[in-house]
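Throughout our pipeline, every protein is held as a single compact record rather than as scattered files. Such a record has a labelled line for the sequence and another for the backbone structure tokens. The remainder of this section carries one protein's record, kept here as part of the documentation:
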Amino acid sequence: MKPPETSLASPSVAASTAVVTEDIERFWVAYDAAVATPDVAGRAALIQRLYIDPGSPGLHALMQARDYTAQSYADVITRYPKYWASVRPLTARARSAASSLEQDLATLRKLYPELRPATITYAIGAMRTGGTTLGDKVLIGAEIALTDESVDVSEFPEPMKTRLGAFFATRPIDNNGQNNVHEYVHTQQRDMADVLASRVVYEGVAEFVAEQVTGKRPPLEMYRYGPAHADAIREHFVAQMDGASTKDWLYNAPTNTFGVSDLGYYVGYEIARGYHERAADKRAALREMIQLDYGDVAAVKAFIQASGYLKP
């Protein structure tokens, strides 16, 4: 029998808001079976049968969003046994990590009354995201999002070892509430254009709104490096904002022009913050940035212009 979904929502937030954690326990059952078999080639079939086939809609959405397959899981299970051993007890913290969700969504609804309901699923991914979305589903990769400095990264190749090691050292578990709200905001936004300006503003708005709700920003290097190098970052962004490359800006390792990961989040945050600060009606400004047509490059560039970011 399929275990019941766990809901932490209150009627005052949204009746359909739920936190689903059932996939995590099921993953570890599949993991134990996979590592116990001497048939390494058969591990993917075990993952498929014990984890994926009975999985929640959220797990299946996570797999779709990140192109995970049963073989993806089998590969990382085989390559990184020390990592999985160290992260296993941390993934049991999903329910407690989501304990602030009810209050955070109530705060978000006060700031943005048009908030639409979404579900949140904590599942185990194949190590490529701590959070993403698909439609009205927030999808949290527990093996990344619920971590701390105790995670063993010794088996990872570079630059993966440096990037994830630095990330785990920031104790992502402590920032889980902000991460949930960031991803929840994405379920409210329109699709992006495949242009750097659109992607940066899309991520920056989610960062800014999440800070307004939780009072937190993730303690990542981009927020320390960014203000100290603001002019150089701005100049480089302006030169590349009309292109499609995210190499120096998003979803990257620190092996880029600046030597710092994900500076696009910082740039987008500064754009959103500037727009909000300049607005006389703060609630209207928040609504405008969430409802911005991110697929309309002209509208995105007008938003950037109105933020004052281009003219410090």
